[in-house]
Amino acid sequence: MSRNRVLTGSRAMVEAIAQEMRVDPTVFVMGEDVGPYGGIFSSTTGLLDEFGEERVRDTPISETAFIGAGVGAAMAGMRPIVELMFVDFFGVCMDAIYNLAAKNTYFSGGNSKVPMVLMTATGGGYSDAGQHSQTLHATFAHLPGMKVVAPSNAYDAKGLMTSAIRDDAPVLYMFHKGLQGLAWMAAPEGASTEVPEDPYAIPFGEARVVREGGDVTIVAISMTVHHALAAAEALAKDGVDAEVIDLRSLVPLDREAVLASVRKTGRLVVADEDYRSFGLTAEIIASVAETDPGLLKSAPRRVACPDIPIPYSRPMERFALPDAEKIRAAVQQTLNRAVA
Amino acid sequence: MEPSKDQLLWMYAAMAKARHYEDTMARAYMEGKTPKFDIGAGLVPGEMHLAAGQEPCAAGVCVHLRAGDTVTATHRPHHVAIAKGVDLNRMTAEIYGRRDGLAGGRGGHMHLFDPAVNFACSGIIGESAGPATGAALAARLQGSDAVAVAYLGDGAANQGAFHEALNLASLWRLPVVFVIEDNAWGISVPKSRSTAVPDNSVRARGYDMPGVHVADNDTLAVFDAAGEAVARARRGEGPTLIEVQTYRYYGHFQGDPEVYRPKDEVARLKARDPIDRLRGHMLDNAGVTEAEADEALTRVRAEVDAAFEFARQSGEPAPEDALEHVFA
Asked: Which CATH superfamily is domain B5-312 in?
């Protein structure tokens, strides 16, 4: 009988990895500081003790080599889970990701597969500045051949990780630092959730309605789900009943869930911590517009990081990153109301 | 190469200044973050990587440099910035995220830029190597005898950018010096578990350039090796790789639980403190008096204290200032 406990995002991730490692000897973990340290954002805590150094491998600071090696190991029958410590660091190793991992299946006509999980920390909010605070969802989702997931809570963190490990495609598992439940970084209340002990998988491409409402649809992912929920609570006091959708994965993208909600509400706000232009927010709005622009009763709005590097100083970083108040204001605009 | 008395005093002052800076920053950083460490709380924002113990790498190299020479540093940049002469008031204000900072608070502690002394740094491992190579190329193209110095940690020697830059610099015989600060740790991973060779200076051989290893955080040996390398670069004879075995007294970042580190390591390292050793050498062998050394110490401590006061007095930037300076 499966028991539920409240877990942090990081503990939920680690539990999924450990459970898969116990039953599948091809699963192993490598990355920087994943061994004794347990991952800078606690994504591998305790794995070294249980599985040893052969299967939980600290790497040199050589992302091109070890992500490339992950691709090769995956093609040779393993299921590597490779950590890119900060997503911002993709700059030194993108070729292994988007030209190898993402394309080898296609280039082999489906005869080769790359069942690799690349897990990576995203997000700002703690003044780590522009090389350590980006979200970059769209950078990866834009490039064909990779599945891209971004959990907003511990329950999803476990179920999406289990699916990622079992998937035969390369999966980019983008976890927000601020949702990990780290002792040294504040997390929103809803990030830690009840998590069943038994293994379970959450299918990719299934968005979740986290709050039902009839007046406006707020589409969010990862950290912005929490901002959206807080905004919805504030809006409820103004008599606005907002529906909040957590996409959970960017690739595949559950456009149907968005359309179903917008059919009901007729109003749309999309929130993403990634940069504003050419991103997830535009993709969602385009999906609605090209399906049936008549669904929208007012112009859709997006809440995202303006097109600037993420600033270091707190007032400027707060200005740049999405929050509940910015989402609330955007919703008010879709309702053609003056913002208080 | 023997340092003159003036050079000894300059290095001593630069090292003492950097040490006092880091120790002061360590305290300032924890204000508002105790008893429970929360990276988002307190006076000083963001991550904090301190370089106490690594001062010989900064002073022993930068003593040979001029304002027109370029230095690119790492995510642990303060000691090098101080030795290169970066405006200390504005650097400190930047680290405090204040309006009067070098970048008005946009960059912070890992992104310090002072074009007045050709100093820059990056938070990405290994990304000092390419830009220093490019600064050296610019000097060549501009007919100047300026040189460039790239600082890297020992972990960065396993990055592609490092190897590619070494090859390019050697191929074009560019006036650049690569200085690896080997503090034995890449966050939690010891060098012995990340690097196939115990001494990265041997890697110079693969790129047909001199490679020099400096043991035991020895300021005088850094001075000697860097003096030769900088002179060689200025003469147009090409790049040099120097690896300095140095010490890191603090954790990788402030708040690092350091579970990976032997408990007695820092005490052992502090017993061989490079600033104390340099002072001993100056007094015993170079005719420096106690009064001269103390005067230098008093002066640099006052400069550091004034810089922190400047930062504290500087106002917060306006939120919408974030939109400025994306493009030139």
From this structure: Thiamin diphosphate (ThDP)-binding fold, Pyr/PP domains (3.40.50.970)
